[in-house]
Design brief:
By secondary structure, the protein is mainly beta. 9% of the residues lie in helices and 49% in strands.
C-alpha cells in the first residue's frame, strides 16, 4: 500500500512539473533579447504585457510602445506605455492615460499612437475618443505631455470632418508634418455606414488638431456590399510607411477581433493616386497573417540596413484561437513587393539594422 501511495504521489508530482513546464512554454519573459512568437509576453518585471491596437516610435536608444490595455480588469479603461532597447525586452514605463479627469466621460480610448512635435517639444497621443454613450462612434482625441513617459492631459477631441465619426485610427509622421489615418463613417441616403472608407488628414503644426483632408478612398460609394467586396470597401487597422520614394498603406479586413489577411496599396504621394489593394504575400503561406490583425509597422534603421517589423494583434483572449496577444515579424521586400515572413524566434541587431532568425 505504501508503494502504491508512493507511485500515486510520484505521478502527481510529474503531472505538476509537466503543467509548470507547459505554462512556462507559453510565456515569454523579457531578458534574452529574442522576439518569441506564439507565446504570451511578459515585461521585465515578470508581469504579462497588455498592449494592443497601438504604435511604436524610437527615441534615442529606446523604442516606446503605446497600446490599449486589453487584460483582465481592463475597466476602467487605460493606455499603457512600454519601452525596449531591442523590441524584445519590454519594461512597463507608465499607464499614461486613465479613465479619469477629462477622460472620465469617454466610453473608451482606443488605437493610441505617438507623435513628437519638434516645434513645441511636446509628445502627443492621438486616439479614438469615444463618447460616454458607448459605441456612438469616435472623434480624434489628442492628449499631450512634456515627457514621453509622463501622464498625458486631454488637449482636444474633434471629428475629422463635421459630423463624420471614425473607426480605427493611426498616425504617420514625416519630419515636421503629421497625419491622421482614419477609417471613416459615411451617411449614404440617410443610412449610416460604418468603416466605409480610408482617409488621410494632415494635422496642424502643433499636431493637436485636424487641418485638412489629403485623401479619401477605397470606398463602396453605393453603400451596397455586393457592389464591392466588404474587405475592399471596409478596411480597418491601417498604417502607412515610406520605403524609398514609395508609400505603402497597410490595413486589415473588417472582422471584429478576428484575424485577417493584410492588404496594402502604394502611391508616390500621400494625396494619391493610390493603387488598387493588393494582398500581402506571406512565407510560408497564411490566409490570416499568421492568425493576427495588422496593427502597424516599425522601421528599425541601423548603420547597415533597415529592418521593417510587422506588428500584429492576436486577440486570443476573446477569439480563443492561437497563443499570445502580440506577434512581431520581419517584413522584407522582394522585387519591390513586401513579403511577410514567419519566424517563431528571431532577434534584431538594432545598431546594424539587421535581423537573424533563430532555428
Amino acid at each position: 500500500m505504501q508503494t502504491l501511495h508512493a507511485q500515486v504521489g510520484h505521478h502527481r508530482r510529474v503531472e505538476i512539473v509537466l503543467i509548470m513546464l507547459l505554462a512556462a512554454a507559453t510565456m515569454a519573459r523579457a531578458g534574452d533579447g529574442v522576439i518569441h512568437n506564439d507565446v504570451a509576453w511578459r515585461d521585465t518585471a515578470g508581469n504579462e504585457i497588455w498592449c494592443n491596437g497601438g504604435h511604436i516610435i524610437r527615441e534615442g536608444e529606446l523604442f516606446y510602445w503605446v497600446g490599449y490595455d486589453t487584460g483582465p480588469g481592463r475597466w476602467p479603461w487605460k493606455i499603457n506605455l512600454y519601452s525596449s532597447p531591442n523590441l524584445a525586452d519590454w519594461k512597463l514605463e507608465n499607464t499614461v492615460i486613465r479613465m479619469q479627469g477629462k477622460f472620465a466621460d469617454m466610453g473608451w480610448a482606443g488605437r493610441p499612437a505617438l507623435l513628437h512635435c519638434e516645434a513645441t517639444g511636446k509628445y502627443i497621443i492621438v486616439f479614438e475618443a469615444d463618447s460616454a454613450r458607448q459605441w456612438k462612434r469616435h472623434k480624434a482625441g489628442f492628449a499631450v505631455c512634456d515627457r514621453i513617459d509622463g501622464t498625458y492631459e486631454l488637449a482636444a477631441a474633434e471629428y475629422p470632418e463635421p459630423g463624420r465619426s471614425t473607426g480605427d485610427q493611426s498616425v504617420y509622421q514625416e519630419g515636421d508634418h503629421a497625419y491622421l489615418l482614419a477609417t471613416m463613417d459615411k451617411d449614404i441616403g440617410g443610412r449610416k455606414y460604418m468603416n466605409q472608407s480610408l482617409a488621410i488628414f494632415e494635422l496642424s503644426k502643433d499636431f493637436l488638431h485636424v487641418e485638412r483632408n489629403v485623401f479619401e478612398g477605397f470606398d463602396n460609394v453605393s453603400g451596397h456590399r455586393n457592389v464591392v467586396p466588404r474587405e475592399h470597401s471596409s478596411r480597418e487597422a491601417s498604417h502607412i510607411i515610406k520605403v524609398g520614394d514609395v508609400y505603402y498603406w497597410f490595413s486589415s479586413a473588417l472582422v471584429g477581433w478576428n484575424s485577417s489577411a493584410t492588404m496594402y496599396a502604394t502611391a508616390k504621394d500621400l494625396a494619391g493616386p493610390w493603387s488598387e489593394l493588393k494582398m500581402l504575400r506571406t512565407d510560408p503561406a497564411s490566409n490570416d497573417s499568421y492568425d493576427t490583425q495588422h496593427d502597424f509597422i516599425v522601421p528599425v534603421v541601423g548603420r547597415e540596413a533597415t529592418t521593417w517589423v510587422y506588428v500584429g494583434d492576436r486577440y486570443s483572449q476573446w477569439t480563443k484561437r492561437g497563443t499570445g496577444r502580440n506577434v512581431f515579424l520581419p517584413l522584407v521586400w522582394e522585387n519591390e513587393q513586401p513579403l511577410l515572413r514567419w519566424h517563431k524566434d528571431w532577434e534584431i541587431d538594432v545598431s546594424r539594422g539587421m535581423f537573424t532568425a533563430i532555428p
